[in-house]
Amino acid sequence: MKKLKFALKIFILISVAATIVIFSINLYIVLSANNKITDRDSTAEMYGIDYVVVLGCGINGNRPTHMLEDRLLEGMAVAESIPDCKLILTGDNSGKYYNEVGVMKSFCLEKGFDENRIITDDFGFSTGESLENTKNVFGGNNVIIITQKYHTYRALFIAEIIGLDAHAVPSDPRSYSTWLYKSVREPLARVKDFIKYIIVK
Predict the structure, then answer these.
(1) I need a labelling partner for 157 at 20 to 30 A (CA). Which of 6, 16, 141, 187 fits?
(2) What's the CATH number where 147 sits?
(3) Residue 126: inside a domain, yes or no?
(4) In total, how many domains does the chain have?
(5) Contact 127, 154 (CB under 8 A)
(6) pTM of structure
(7) How many CB atoms lie within 10 A of CB 145?
(8) Where are the alpha helices (DSSP H) in 34-178?
């Protein structure tokens, strides 16, 4: 009985410590990125923007999910307000039957966006890889990231760590059926990337 009580105490202590660590890391990431979140109207006044970067988030067959569709629409609108910059579409093109970036590009062309202003990144398998490719492969220094607001904090945190001068424009014109799942997943993803970019690297 004593051993059981001791084990229970240890479990509680570890659980409390883990909760504190997760909360602290999330608070740090949110606060560090908060002043880099802006809106579409403000981007028109920015100078020296290299790219507007639309982060992938899934497709249904040959169509973007609602979340991705909204990112693409916002990305095109922001890019149109900055005529000299290009649009990077970055996502997962990992297999014969899953071409996220191809779907993203087709959607933009359907909407009349200039193909000459589109760059595709087929190797954006994660937020970090997408942003690292933007900097290291495409030579981006000053960028605007397009994603939903819950995701902007982690994207901006990673961008700062790898040396990108980035702002983010949230794209949340409607509610999404996957909101609850992503809201639970995102705090853990922030911890993962904090460990990857701060502790490991």
Answers:
(1) 16
(2) 3.40.50.620
(3) yes
(4) 1
(5) yes
(6) 0.92
(7) 31
(8) 40-43, 66-80, 100-110, 127-136, 149-162
